[in-house]
């Protein structure tokens, strides 16, 4: 067995290495103080580094949840505005239907009412095809890349969406999506647009015996359409309130995570500054003694 004999290191070499080690410790400590952290490498505190990593991942998940909540809140807020305007349109249409069934109106009077009804029909059609900030149709359900409502070959306005649109389900919060069109405006012959078309037909009916029942039927459908919008607005308000509570929850959870992370990685500044001063004094003393003992400066040896 061959024995390898390592050359002995001189006292000057050992002293130089100690000073370099002091300089390295001083540099690392200055970096920690500048960043306000207790450790910068996993090896310095494996358990603390693991906990800090878990807290950082938790915060990233909470940030993603908040983005989902924000998108859902924005869509619901846009939808609520469209619902509020639709509510006003339907209320005005009810008033016109009540006015239109007045027996003393002339045919010309009814034509004037019909013109206003057609204007509200167009306005409600635009509201039913409202979009969010990304240009997606709010009331088209899952098929929000295309208009929610279109006019078919007969001129009737029909819903062409499918299913329900996205809410905050990705954040574990169900029931916060925008209601699909049929929940608001109805569908086909039972919907608001069918009621408006029925009202127009009744206004144009010359036979008073037929016009009266047709006006009553149209009014009943408009009232049902209005009630549907009112109910949807209430549910939307509840969903928005829930998302607001979830925003508060996420904010509190992020604050708790930040406080835990600060406690895990946080630096005791008083102790760190004391250690920094001690290291500086030790290094300064070593640098001053080195040339007197070894007859040369550290920089000459390192050079």
Main sheet summary: 2 strands, antiparallel
Radius of gyration (CA) equals 38 Å
Helix content: 55-70%
Residue-averaged pLDDT, rounded?
Answer: 84
Number of helices: 8
Number of strands: 2
Per DSSP, what share of the residues sits in E-state strands of 2 or more residues?
Answer: under 5%
Runs with pLDDT <50, length 5+?
A: none
Oligomer: single chain
In short:
With 303 residues, this protein is an all-alpha fold. It has helices at residues 11-35, 46-100, 107-128, 181-185, 192-203, 208-265, 269-294, 298-302; strands at residues 149-151, 157-159. It has a two-stranded antiparallel ribbon with strand order 1-2.
Explain this structure.
The chain is mostly helical. The protein has eight helices and two strands, in the order H-H-H-E-E-H-H-H-H-H. It has a two-stranded antiparallel sheet with strand order 1-2. Strand 1 (149-151) and strand 2 form a beta hairpin. The chain is rod-shaped. The mean pLDDT is 84.
Task: For this entry, give a set of tags.
303 residues; mainly alpha; two-stranded antiparallel ribbon; 8 helices
What is the fold's blueprint, element by element?
Layout: H1 11-35, H2 46-100, H3 107-128, E1 149-151, E2 157-159, H4 181-185, H5 192-203, H6 208-265, H7 269-294, H8 298-302
Antiparallel strand pairs: 1-2
Helix pairs in contact: 1-7, 2-3, 2-5, 2-6, 3-5, 5-6
